[in-house]
Amino acid sequence: MRKDSRLSRVLHVLIHLDSYSHPVTSETLANMLMTNPVVVRRTMALLRQAGYVSAIKGHNGGWLLATPLTDITLFNIHQALGEKNLFVIGLTDEHSHCPIEHAVNSALQNAMDDAEALLLKRFAEVSLAELASQFKK
């Protein structure tokens, strides 16, 4: 199963942007992430809409951090990316008339909901400045 690494990759980019004193191009960020600049632009556009980055067009343009890392949490970025589910475990619905399937799905869904609530609570407690301080040590 393929992992969704978009959140970790975006956090990586934002912490790098904090260390630059000038705009950083999508091409530079794409090289850093080993992806296509179009992917970077699409993702950064979501962050711009949320107010975490800004863009300068033209020669010497690029992306800038618009909000201090101290004011951005993992939860903020998770929301800005429009992530719906943290877990990709699927529930079956092939036998929707079966009471066993209902019981299994209910138990799994309740456990995943509890785990997701706990994880999102923790995401809200961790600022990007905390992450940045770990690598600066």
TrEMBL record:
The cross-references to Pfam families, in alphabetical order and at most eight, read:
Rrf2
Say which domain of life the source belongs to.
Bacteria
**Origin species:** Pseudoalteromonas gelatinilytica
Write the protein's name.
Rrf2 family transcriptional regulator
Q: What positions belong to coiled-coil segments?
A: none
The family database entries (InterPro entries) matched by this protein are listed as:
Tscrpt_reg_Rrf2 (IPR000944), WH-like_DNA-bd_sf (IPR036388), WH_DNA-bd_sf (IPR036390)
Cross-referenced PANTHER family, in alphabetical order?
Answer: HTH-TYPE TRANSCRIPTIONAL REGULATOR YWGB-RELATED (PTHR33221:SF15), WINGED HELIX-TURN-HELIX TRANSCRIPTIONAL REGULATOR, RRF2 FAMILY (PTHR33221)
